[in-house]
Amino acid sequence: MDFGLTEEHLMIRDAARDFARTELLPGVIERDNLQKFPTEQVKKMGELGFLGMMASPKYGGGGMDTISYVLVMEELSKIDASASVIVSVNNSLVCWGLDTYGNEAQKEKYLTKLTTGESIGAFCLSEPEAGSDATSQKTTAIDKGDHYVLNGTKNWITNGNSADFYLVIAQTDKEKKHKGINAFIVEKGWDGFEVGVKEDKLGIRGSDTHSLIFNDVKVPKENRIGEDGFGFKFAMKTLSGGRIGIAAQALGIASGAYELARDYSKVRKAFGTEICNHQAIAFKLADMHTNITAARHLVMQSAWDKDQGRNYDMSGAMAKLFASQVAMDTTVEAVQVHGGNGYVKEYHVERLMRDAKITQIYEGTSEIQKIVISRGLLKD
Ligand code: CAA
Ligand code: FAD
Question: Which cofactor does this sequence's record say it needs (predicted)?
Fold first, then answer.
């Protein structure tokens, strides 16, 4: 394995680092408090090319590799995981799904707007009774010849209200189980499509998470992605790459918390010396750095697997499983290093701790990652 970061990789990483510090950091506490979507910042990220990094240049994408993408995800997530999940969903679920499996007309009509940030996308698989058990879809899309009629409810959808285009997974033939599932492109504003309540969340409070209600929504047949019955595989294949992005998000949250804890320990004094001189604190930093380095290796390996055209189902799941645990452990310890200040919003680590938890839940819980990994191990 040679991750060999090129000059170009370092440039894009530095651009993301700079953007995070100058554009995301200033309002991050306020956005978290007010559950405010980072509209201006998302617009700027579109201009910088962060919203369609891996998509084909032909459709306005950056044509970059997955290594570049995880470097950007890590840097943004060090400061603002609400902003980075918007980037993650748009890049690896929506743009990648359309670029890889959409037809020419779909790419021309939708992808060209999504890669530039002119429009934002959402990926809609989960339902009130179908989260981990994703084949138990209750949303139906009934074939009416030249269109489908979509009915049902999706839950916890990231970019739920901010999106313009939604990739919606629905059951078209219950008898066929997962082979009777399809994926559709649905536009905001279509008759019968309603954005439901906004969730009041523990973390990533700047990202908007909504339920979506479909009531006899007419979806033209040309908006189905791929062959009839491809929807579940579409979702699984797309999520395999998505998990690499969330692993990088977890890595960024952990790195951000570690850097804050390290810096704080060098200036805060107790018992006549900086607290980093107490071995109990220094050892926490050693554990954090070791775990983060291990997580970074897994994240880079999964990105590298994807870039090399190798299978990345397992390596992406391992990266997400491990990095999300590291994010939890590191942020909890970063709060501890900060003492009372760690419990106060101004010092950022309490937010990172709240943000870390979601990385163990979305795009497949940690238990689901273990299912993916163990099935992969035992397959042959
Ligand atoms: N690639 C291609 N095909 C795949 C696949 C993959 N990675 N994983 C499964 N499949 C195929 C299987 O081969 C099988 O097809 P065949 O019968 O033709 O072989 C079919 O899908 C069904 O597979 P399983 O029998 O393994 O299905 P299962 O019911 O046991 O579930 C699961 C498997 C891995 C648990 C899956 O349901 C899963 O991933 N659940 C978690 C859902 C999830 O991650 N949701 C995230 C929502 S998006 C989100 O969260 C975004 C965000 O927050 C920002
Ligand atoms: P459940 O499936 O009910 O699981 C509950 C518990 O049981 C978990 O601990 C789980 O690991 C465990 N469990 C379930 N089955 C098994 C099993 N077979 N073996 C062992 N343990 C098991 N979804 C989207 O489609 N699009 C989005 O954009 C999106 N964004 C989200 C944003 C946020 C903030 C949140 C909170 C969720 C989001 N989700 C999204 C949904 C998310 O993917 C699901 O919450 C997640 O997949 C888990 O599903 P669930 O909540 O129904 O939990």
Answer: FAD
